């Protein structure tokens, strides 16, 4: 019984030794540190602490498996054309920087970034990407910088960047984008922390200038769209001129690179499809009005908000009122600082006019903005009433002028232009004594002194003298005055006048 037991033990011992060695080898392969040390510095990559550089190694795929402690992975300047989901089969929790530029990359899997959720910097520039599909970057909630310039991107799904809530800088220049991605900076799906959006050197022809004008200055400061085939217009000039006056980097740094094509009507005067500088539109081409910063105006009893529109986000803001009084929470002023740093004034009073100053301070930047407020001495409704009154007065004056003109030119012919008017005994003549400035009855005084009244000379009495009366000043032969006879008067002498034009004189003639 003991011999078989000994043999069994001996055989078992030999097999157990082999099993033990196999277990040790498998354990060593599964130890993270051992696997890392085996693959960390192979021949195709260069390792320096937590940096793995595989640049310019003619790779067609990503080396796998990668060390779990990798923070920076450089795969640029290779021939990796497709980034599949299995390129990172295991999670890389410490990977912050991934460089994949200059690879001829034309395909991105929708699950390519599931195991690298801690990425903060992703470089996909200088590749052959043509479109950004929906939710392609959804897993990258910590991503801050994304480089996509120098690709062939022409289509960007509106949900491509959904989930990338921490994205701060997005470079899309040198692509085939034809539509400005307004949703990234304005719509509900906007990227709240985005401070730089570069869509320069694309194929954008039109900009939503009205929407861009309403953006905060800290967004406009990092919004670049130069070197696009924009169509010239005064709205485009006004937008960029405003940004230039505010010294926003996007307009200040690339002033000469903002160019546009003249519309067909304007280009027909020179050369078709002429490209000119946007800042030249105010003088040389379209005669756009020169842009000037306008001060704020307000009416009595109005509630007004003054914005401290700084070029940088999240700055501490302090307001000074006219007279350098600091706006404080416990002050007795009608002004108060809102949570977003703007100043609310209301109800507005006449003494609120003056210069307001906003001091904005952060760890790296300081800004000072000035707002000049002018308060009208009436309410907004009163201003409307005044306008209505002025309009009514103007209409009344015009109506009066029209009636006067109608009276002058559309009334029946006057008696002095009717040949037979003076022969009708029942009618009152224009020569009647109603125009007399003296009594019409005979006085004992001499005729030369008292018997004087205003008269208008009738041209029919002047025939034969070419419109003139007795140039020698002598009295003509006395004829019976028909009108005087009808009124019970005696004879009268004809007036001596220089010209028949006196009929229309404003100065009465005395005879």
Automatic annotation (TrEMBL):
InterPro entries: AMIGO, Ig-like_dom, Ig-like_dom_sf, Ig-like_fold, Ig_sub, Ig_sub2, Leu-rich_rpt, Leu-rich_rpt_typical-subtyp. Residues 473-484 have a biased composition (Acidic residues). It is a single-pass type I membrane protein. CDD domains: Ig. Coiled coil: none annotated. Residues 272-374 form the Ig-like domain. One of its GO terms (biological process) is cell adhesion. Residues 1-36 form the signal peptide. One of its GO terms (cellular component) is membrane. Its main location: membrane. Keywords: Cell adhesion, Disulfide bond, Glycoprotein, Immunoglobulin domain, Leucine-rich repeat, Membrane, Repeat, Signal, Transmembrane, Transmembrane helix. It is found in: Membrane. The chain crosses the membrane at residues 390-410. Residues 463-499 are annotated as: Disordered. PANTHER family: AMPHOTERIN-INDUCED PROTEIN, AMPHOTERIN-INDUCED PROTEIN 1. Belongs to the immunoglobulin superfamily. AMIGO family. This is Ig-like domain-containing protein. It comes from Muraenolepis orangiensis.
């Amino acid at each position: 019984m003991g011999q078989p037991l000994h043999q069994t033990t001996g055989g078992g011992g030999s097999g157990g030794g082999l099993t033990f060695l196999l277990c040790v080898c498998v354990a060593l392969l599964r130890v993270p540190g051992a696997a890392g040390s085996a693959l960390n510095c192979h021949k195709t990559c260069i390792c320096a602490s937590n940096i793995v550089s595989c640049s310019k190694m003619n790779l067609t795929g990503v080396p796998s498996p990668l060390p779990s402690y990798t923070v920076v992975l450089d795969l640029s300047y290779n021939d990796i054309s497709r980034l599949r989901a299995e390129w990172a089969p295991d999670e890389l929790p410490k990977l912050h920087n991934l460089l994949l530029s200059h690879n001829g990359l034309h395909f991105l899997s929708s699950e390519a970034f599931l195991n690298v959720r801690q990425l903060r910097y992703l470089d996909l520039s200088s590749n052959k990407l043509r479109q950004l599909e929906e939710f392609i970057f959804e897993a990258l909630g910590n991503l801050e910088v994304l480089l996509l310039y120098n690709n062939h991107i022409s289509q960007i799904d509106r949900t491509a960047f959904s989930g990338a809530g921490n994205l701060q800088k997005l470079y899309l220049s040198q692509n085939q984008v034809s539509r400005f991605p307004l949703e990234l900076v304005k719509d509900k799906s906007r990227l709240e922390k985005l401070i730089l959006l570069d869509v320069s050197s694309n194929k954008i022809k039109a900009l939503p200038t009205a929407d861009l004008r309403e953006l905060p200055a800290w967004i406009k400061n990092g919004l670049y769209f130069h070197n696009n085939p924009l169509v010239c217009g005064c709205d485009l000039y006004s937008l960029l001129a405003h940004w230039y006056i505010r010294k926003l980097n996007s307009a200040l740094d690339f002033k000469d690179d903002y160019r546009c094509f003249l519309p067909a009507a304007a280009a027909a005067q020179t050369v078709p499809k002429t490209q000119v500088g946007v800042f030249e539109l105010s003088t040389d081409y379209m005669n756009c009005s020169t842009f000037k910063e306008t001060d704020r105006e307000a009416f009595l009893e109005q509630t007004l908000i003054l914005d401290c529109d700084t070029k940088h986000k999240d700055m501490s803001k302090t307001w000074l009122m006219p007279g350098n009084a600091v706006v404080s929470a416990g002050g007795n002023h009608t002004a108060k600082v809102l949570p977003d740093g703007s100043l609310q004034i209301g109800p507005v009073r006449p003494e609120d006019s003056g210069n307001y100053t906003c001091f904005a301070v952060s760890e790296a930047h300081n800004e000072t903005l000035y707002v000049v407020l002018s308060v009208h001495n009436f309410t907004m409704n009163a201003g409307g009433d005044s306008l209505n009154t002025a309009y009514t007065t103007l209409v009344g004056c015009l109506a009066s002028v029209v009636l006067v003109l109608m009276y002058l030119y559309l009334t029946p012919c006057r008696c002095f232009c009717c040949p037979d008017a003076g022969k009708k005994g029942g009618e009152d003549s224009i020569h009647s004594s109603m125009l007399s400035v003296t009594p019409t009855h005979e006085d004992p005084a001499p005729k030369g002194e008292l018997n004087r009244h205003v008269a208008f000379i009738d041209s029919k009495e002047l025939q034969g003298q070419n419109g003139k009366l007795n140039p020698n000043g002598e009295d003509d032969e006395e004829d019976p005055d028909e009108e005087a006879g009808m009124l019970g008067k005696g004879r009268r002498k004809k007036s001596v006048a220089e010209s028949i034009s006196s009929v229309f004189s404003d100065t009465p003639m005395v005879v």
